Amino acid sequence: MLAGVTALRSLAAEITACRRCARLVRCREAAADPPPRRFAGESYWARPVPGFGDPAARLLVVGLAPGAHGGNRTGRVFTGDRSGDWLYAALHRAGYANQAASIRPGDGLALAGAYVSCVVRCAPPGNKPSPGERDRCVGYLVRELELLRRVRVIVALGGFAWDGVLLAAAALGHAIPRPRPRFGHAAEARIGPWQVVASYHVSQQNTFTGRLTEPMLDQVFARARACAAA
Q1: CATH top class, domain 2-229
Q2: For an engineered disulfide with 91, which of 60, 96, 135, 173 has Cβ 3.0 to 4.6 Å away?
């Protein structure tokens, strides 16, 4: 386990130093120069954001990318914005997080049995990475999957994350079912050693409109816990 923890830390350092996508570098840095009034005076992370959680996790949660004023500001994935509020509150209700709030690193949040990551590590313009940016970044997810050896279930938040997980699984040599599994809320697919479970993303456009509700998200994590325990 110690070797795995060390390897994850090394990977995190490599991720945070990445500058391979010029458009994403510009976007993540521009978000902090200047920041919006509500975050005036704050020091932004403004670098790629690594994964976060328990190295012995049986559950991996994968999102799209850090929010420009969420993870890109705080330096921790899904932290400091409304999407993170929804995700970590749900993980807390499911017994994976010791608290519901995810404000900033050092706030006491700890995950047990879960790890949170994303397909693209920099905040993209309009929250829409290009296919090339996705393909350059998905290798980091591949390496996380190699290191998180106890993971048995993956929750993909949104269609972009669903496709990213399938790409990462294929890169590791796992056969993708035919016909190719399609994204939809609560959709599932068995790929290699993982049960992949889909959820609508926890973005405000879904949570504010009622497309994704707390009971819907709780059902996804209840299913994930059952799969992880199998």
Answers
A1: alpha beta
A2: 96
State the DSSP string of 93-136: HTTSBS-S---STTS---BSSEEEEES--SPPGGG---HHHHHH
Tell me the pLDDT tens digit for each residue of 143-185: 999 999 999 999 999 999 999 999 999 999 999 999 999 999 9
Half-sphere exposure of 84 (CA within 13 A, CB side): 28
Distances (CA, A) of 152 to 67, 114, 149, 202: 27, 11, 8, 22
Coil, strand or helix: which one is 68? coil
Residue extents of the structural domains in the chain? 2-229
Q: If phi over 0 gives left and psi between -120 and 50 gives alpha, with beta otherwise, what is residue 57?
A: beta
User: If we measure between CA atoms, which residue out of 111, 29, 113 comes closest to residue 77?
Assistant: 111
Cα–Cα distance measured from residue 66 to residue 123, given in angstroms and rounded to the nearest whole number: 5
List Cβ neighbours of 42 (8 Å cut-off, separation of 6 or more): 35, 73
Inform me whether the pLDDT recorded for 38 exceeds 70.
yes
Instruction: Please answer whether residues 92 and 100 qualify as being in contact, where contact means their C-beta atoms are separated by less than 8 angstroms.
Output: yes
| pTM summary value | 0.97
Q: Rounded to whole angstroms, how far apart are CA atoms 121 and 87?
A: 17
Note whether 226 and 155 are within 8 A (CB). Answer: no
DSSP state of 38: G
* Structure tokens, 128: 């829409």
Residue 184 CA to residue 205 CA, distance in Å, equals 16
